[in-house]
């Protein structure tokens, strides 16, 4: 993960100094027209990297050098294509604070025409309107326009029955390319496939369009009540992602109250400076800043912001979604939020009054995911088999017992294969008994199905996962292994084995600790697994595991305990060690430099967070 370092170089109103990495593009290198550009054949103007490209056969476009002011003039004309731009307007746009003789303008115009190969007497690109100004006359279109973008969407992989939903999402994304922001809620019961749909859509969008993608997740309990929990995660991802430097620069200029949430992106002095600047900050200011900053980020390259599991959303994030939806300025912004309506229906849910209002005012769309049809399940089974065949009745059986819920369907299939009633032999499905004789003792609830899956694991695997679920949906080997009473290498071996079997656990990004060590991280394929694993344990055992995990984390973070203070407080609290819980709670509190925007809620379970994010939350005193 690249962290943008802001240690030298001038400017910005917050007084922050940013080191910029100038793009170094060699002439003749392969380039991609992106959404942050304008095309006029055979050229395209890269407005982010401020250069002009000429298309060449084979994709090796040629970069054409233009002086910065000449580039600015060309950009101004292209952006106002088809309209007269007077000399005064050009001078004002390109030299806003300097008095410049019209001769300078003419000289740059000569250079521009030269590189375009344009004849002023018979122009193909720029027409001179004597004593008035200039007009760009060639047809211009946005690079990566919606139509062009969609042409390249790759076919879905592994996802069945969601063609319509994907097409709708693509259509909404297409509108953002025209500057029309889109807010979409994808809803459906647990396991219906909201995350799977968005994963697939994100994959398609990333492959087919030039789009920035940021993702944040609301979490149950403590995390679900922290202001902007999911938005912070998404913004953190943007800062650390491709072109993160420009995002940091925008935050520095427009959202210092947000930049200060990411201590690893600023030096201590800069942070102190920011702290001074934002003293006495209000909830309204934070909201205004992030909305404006995201609109700026999305002004050129479209931004897809995914906020998952809004049934656990905090009120600040709801305000944020509402403000984004109601803002009227143009932005190539698409926000997709997912939630389970059953949980959302609870009274007092912060989204409950907002979403219907947005719907009534046509400020958002709702995509309701229904269960898969029998034919979809047939397609799912067929895709697994080498010859695409599915035993008669198997899809119907699974459909009947899962009601089309993909998670239930997967669990039911797992249950059948686990009992040896169905198998994939030589890549072909085989039934070991006639379908009508299969008594699929489908557990009433998914929890039971998951429990059955867990029961089939070895004792060591069960112990490993019971310790793993203590930190939430993801866990770190070096923190969890000892609590599972397992050597680190054995623990890693168990997790790798499960992942290899595509069972319950997947690997995630490695985690670094303040003592300099790094460790493998894993996550559960679905949050329900960690929930079931957590709840099926006796409270006394859970408390013991929390304590062991707290102690291990404490040792790993001994050099800078403040970074994990909130997490440590949580584990010691749950582990019954009130003294240490108070110590770390206080340490977390001491790191409060921005006044908390809400009361710190009771902590129940929380997700283990990536290091930067943990710092952020502790640092902000949330
Ligand atoms: N359309 C589909 N085709 C094939 N598999 C699917 C489909 N939708 C979901 N799945 C699988 O079903 C499981 C559950 O899906 P997913 O996690 O996306 O549900 P969800 O709606 O996000 O649930 P939750 O509300 O609990 O977050 C996953 O293993 C996923 O891969
Ligand atoms: Mg989900």
Shape: globular
Radius of gyration: 28 Å
Number of helices: 27
How many beta-strand runs? 18
- How helix-rich are the residues, as a percent range? 40-55%
End-to-end Cα distance, whole Å, is 24 Å
**CATH homologous superfamily name of the largest domain?**
P-loop containing nucleotide triphosphate hydrolases
What does this entry look like structurally?
The protein is α+β, with helices and mostly antiparallel strands and 622 residues long. It has four domains: 37-142, Orthogonal Bundle (Arc Repressor Mutant, subunit A), CATH 1.10.10; 146-368, P-loop containing nucleotide triphosphate hydrolases (Rossmann fold), CATH 3.40.50; 374-442; 449-620, no CATH class. The chain contains 27 helices and 18 strands. A five-stranded antiparallel beta sheet has the order 4-3-2-1-8, with helices on one face. A five-stranded parallel beta sheet has the order 10-11-12-9-13, sandwiched between helices. Strand 11, helix 13 (315-326) and strand 12 (333-339) form a beta-alpha-beta unit. Helix 8 (229-240) crosses helix 9, helix 16 (374-384) crosses helix 17 (394-402) and helix 19 packs across helix 23 (527-535). It is globular, with a radius of gyration of 28 Å. The site of magnesium ion has 3 residues, from helix 6.
